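Researcher: Let's do a round of design. I'm pasting the C-alpha cells now; please hold your answer until I've finished.
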C-alpha cells in the first residue's frame, strides 16, 4: 500500500538505532533524563531516522512543551508542519491521549494505541515510533499502582513498534524510577540503551502488584 504522499511504504526490517545501539525485538523502552537537552540529544536521532525512512512518528506531549518540541525537530531538519500534513508525524497533547476527558483510563489508552497502530497500517506505514513524555501521571495525580499496571500491561501483547516512555528524573522519586524500570525490558540511562536487568515479566509483576497508596510525583 502506498503512503498518502504517493510513495511506497518502507520495509520494517531495517535496524532501529536508539541511544547508540540497535534496538532489538524487545522494544518497550523506559528512558530517564535529567534535562530537556539530554532528552532531545538522545531521542532526536531516533526520531529523525524513522521520519527519513518514511515511517510514522507518534509523540504524546506536555502541551506546554509542544512549541519547544517542534523547534527541536526543526533544528535537525524536520519540518513538523509538513510532516504532520503528510501524516508521518502525529503530535498529541496529553489531553488527546492518556488524559482524554481529563483523567487516565488504562483500557481506553490501550485501545487508543491499538487504534493508532491499525490506522497506521491501513495507511501504509510499516513501522510507528512512539515517544511519550510521561509526566502526565504527575499532572493527573494518577496513582503509582495505576501507572505501573499500565506500563506492565503494555508487555502482555507483542510490542511490534518501538515505544519510548520518557521520564524526567527531576519529577519522579527514586523508588518510583526503580519500579518503572521493572516494567520495561529495555532502559536508557545516561544516554545509553541497554537490556534492563530489573525487568520483571508482566504476568509476575501484575500478580505481585499491591496497592501502596502513593503517587508518582516527588
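Researcher: That's everything. Go ahead.
Model: Designed sequence:
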Amino acid at each position: 500500500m502506498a503512503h498518502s504522499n504517493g510513495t511506497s511504504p518502507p520495509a520494517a526490517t531495517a535496524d532501529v538505532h536508539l541511544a547508540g545501539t540497535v534496538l532489538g525485538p524487545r522494544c518497550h523502552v523506559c528512558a530517564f533524563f535529567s534535562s530537556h537537552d539530554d532528552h532531545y540529544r538522545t531521542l532526536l536521532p531516533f526520531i529523525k531516522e524513522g521520519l527519513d525512512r518514511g515511517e510514522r512518528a507518534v509523540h504524546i506531549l506536555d502541551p506546554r512543551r509542544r512549541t519547544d518540541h517542534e523547534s527541536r525537530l526543526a533544528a535537525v531538519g524536520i519540518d513538523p508542519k509538513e510532516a504532520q500534513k503528510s501524516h508521518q508525524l502525529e503530535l498529541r497533547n496529553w489531553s488527546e491521549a492518556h488524559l482524554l476527558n481529563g483523567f487516565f483510563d488504562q483500557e481506553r489508552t490501550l485501545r487508543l494505541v491499538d487504534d493508532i497502530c491499525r490506522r497506521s497500517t491501513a495507511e501504509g506505514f510499516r513501522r510507528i515510533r512512539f515517544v511519550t513524555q510521561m509526566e502526565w501521571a504527575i499532572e493527573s495525580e494518577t496513582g503509582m499502582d495505576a501507572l505501573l499496571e499500565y506500563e506492565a500491561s503494555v508487555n502482555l501483547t507483542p510490542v511490534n513498534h518501538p515505544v519510548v516512555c520518557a521520564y524526567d528524573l527531576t519529577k519522579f522519586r527514586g523508588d518510583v524510577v526503580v519500579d518503572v524500570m521493572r516494567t520495561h525490558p529495555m532502559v536508557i540511562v545516561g544516554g545509553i540503551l541497554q537490556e534492563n536487568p530489573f525487568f520483571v515479566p508482566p504476568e509476575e509483576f501484575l500478580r505481585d502488584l499491591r496497592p501502596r497508596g502513593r503517587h508518582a510525583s516527588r
